[in-house]
Amino acid sequence: MSQDIQSILKRLKVDADNKGAAVGNKWLNTSGEKLASYSPVDGKVIANVTLADGKAYDEVIAEAQEAFKEWRQLPAPQRGEIVRQLGNELREYKQELGSLVSYEMGKSLQEGLGEVQEMIDICDFAVGLSRQLYGLTMHSERPSHRMYEQWHPLGIVGIISAFNFPVAVWSWNAALAWVCGDVCVWKPSEKAPISAIACQKIAERVFEKNGIHPGVCGLVIGDAEIGKKLAADTRVPLISATGSTRMGKKVGEVVGARLGKHILELGGNNAMIISEHADLNIVVPGAVFGAVGTAGQRCTSTRRLIIHESQYEEVKERLVKAYGQLRIGDPLDENNHVGPLIDTDAVKMYQAAIEKVKAEGGKTVIDGEVLTGAGYESGCYVKPAIFEAKADYEIVCNETFAPILYLIKYSTIEEAIEIQNAVPQGLSSAIMTTNIRESELFLSHAGSDCGIANVNIGTSGAEIGGAFGGEKETGGGRESGSDAWKAYMRRQTNTINYSTELPLAQGIKFEL
């Protein structure tokens, strides 16, 4: 792959050594540390980045402020046209960008290409949205008065993204923010910086071709201090942060202290309830992909299977058979199902979680293992594991970003829902059942407390047309579709008096 990746980088116009800050097509001098991006696929260096320093960060923000003054004046449908062009540019480079995402992050090639397709889809969604930023009109209690609401852009949107979706999450935020009239400054994960540079290179060409101020699209690749600087910056009215709950709490605290706005998309500890009325022919593929897809490194990955006691043994037996067929290896080989974890630190967390569940009394169904030998030289490949557990185990109530699945037994549907909801996180959930009463209960006020609740599909994955996000320690934010665009704008209520008098509200008299 090392030879292939060089041709991919050349096509994407990414260098062997890169600067870590940019405004559009202008790459800034930086004096931070040099960061090498290693592929978890084979342990080789993809390219280097010199991290952004404080001076470069301030220049990116200053350019963004200037760009906002121009960009907000462009009619929304014209902003949408430029985003449409970005979608077309992504179509042109889908194969190369998807391959780079897979190689740098470790997800399968199909998933890497799927992530770029999500970018294309959100651009298409945003184009339509650019003609649908609707307000409201309402009746005034005062004669000859008109009231209405309208929406205005906020300014700079700071985007902090995670390694597991190194490009799609940026696009979910940026495409919507741009059509809303905002400008963007992106701080990508330090674990996947080359994919971010490739995206910047693609986007910069579109904005340059249209004569747009380069500050509309900013990039700062830096350490945690740059992230803190972005979160604390009063010049940035909205921060959209994706990552762990621990990180999100820190971001939320800093942004909240300055009364800024935030969209937080944090941890998930997602469960699938398997009812006594479930069709097991769709249960197993949904559960297996949810648990091992992206090597369990999706925020929507299935962590817990809550199985009715009458189905428990058969489900367990089918899972063991299915896991026995999994092929683990190079994710760019489409014959493989499971790629590596992002790095050796993630492997250590995987090992610690396995030790913890065993110490708490969990029974091994399929034990975990760090794979070695030919094809596994990076040290990041692990065997997906399954354990029988109890719902109240500490490790079960916490998210582990790895392919570890816990099996939990239940007796009644009410008990199953209670087990599902009894964790701090609230992102995605699913029930497998052919019983309409169970499915409706699951979707009711007394059902799932998650931001996403599915029936007869798994927990993993989401379509861009719906708002994506969760409750509780998942952060409460929403990205992507539906009316998530409102988070990127400020609401303004307007009252117009077209009479020759000045009547006051509530019939108040104020005579001079």
UniProtKB/TrEMBL annotation:
Pfam families: Aldedh. Keywords: NAD, Oxidoreductase. The keyword Nucleotide-binding does not apply. GO terms for molecular function: aldehyde dehydrogenase (NAD+) activity. It comes from the Bacteria. Its EC number is 1.2.1.3. Residues 27-493 form the Aldehyde dehydrogenase domain. The keyword Nuclease does not apply. InterPro entries: Ald_DH/histidinol_DH, Ald_DH_C, Ald_DH_CS_GLU, Ald_DH_N, Aldehyde_DH_dom, ALDH7A1-like. It is an enzyme of class 1 (oxidoreductase). The active site is at E265. Belongs to the aldehyde dehydrogenase family. PANTHER family: ALPHA-AMINOADIPIC SEMIALDEHYDE DEHYDROGENASE (PTHR43521:SF1). Homotetramer. This is aldehyde dehydrogenase (NAD(+)). It comes from Ekhidna lutea.
